[in-house]
């Protein structure tokens, strides 16, 4: 099998995204999607992302 070249910058960005989704799943409301209305779910997701970002 030929070895593929890995773009380190893209890999680092992808890793950050995966970590962020993992942290979002720690928020029970977002992970289980209690909210049926898309607007409410989006706002809960945005709030969780802001809290995670600032901590």
Give descriptors for this structure.
single chain; 55 residues; mainly alpha; 3 helices
Task: Report on this structure.
The structure is a single chain. The protein is mostly helical and 55 residues long. The protein has one domain (8-54). The chain has helices spanning 8-25, 28-32, 38-54. The relative contact order is 0.12. This is Transposase, IS4. Residues 9-53 form the Transposase DDE domain. Keywords: Membrane, Transmembrane, Transmembrane helix. It comes from Sagittula stellata (strain ATCC 700073 / DSM 11524 / E-37).
Instruction: Give me the number of helical elements.
Output: 3
Estimate the strand proportion: under 5%
Classification by helices and strands: mainly alpha
Largest sheet: none
Q: Give the number of DSSP strands.
A: 0
Q: What does the oligomeric state look like here? A: single chain
Question: Could you report the average pLDDT, rounded to the nearest whole number?
Answer: 82
Low-confidence stretches: none
List the helices and strands and how they pair.
Layout: H1 8-25, H2 28-32, H3 38-54
Short description:
The chain has 55 residues and is an all-alpha fold.
């Amino acid at each position: 099998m030929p070895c593929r070249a890995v773009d380190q910058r893209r890999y680092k960005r992808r890793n950050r995204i995966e970590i962020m989704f993992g942290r979002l799943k720690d928020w029970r409301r977002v992970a289980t999607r209690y909210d049926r209305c898309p607007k409410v779910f989006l706002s809960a997701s945005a709030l969780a992302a802001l809290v995670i970002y600032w901590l």
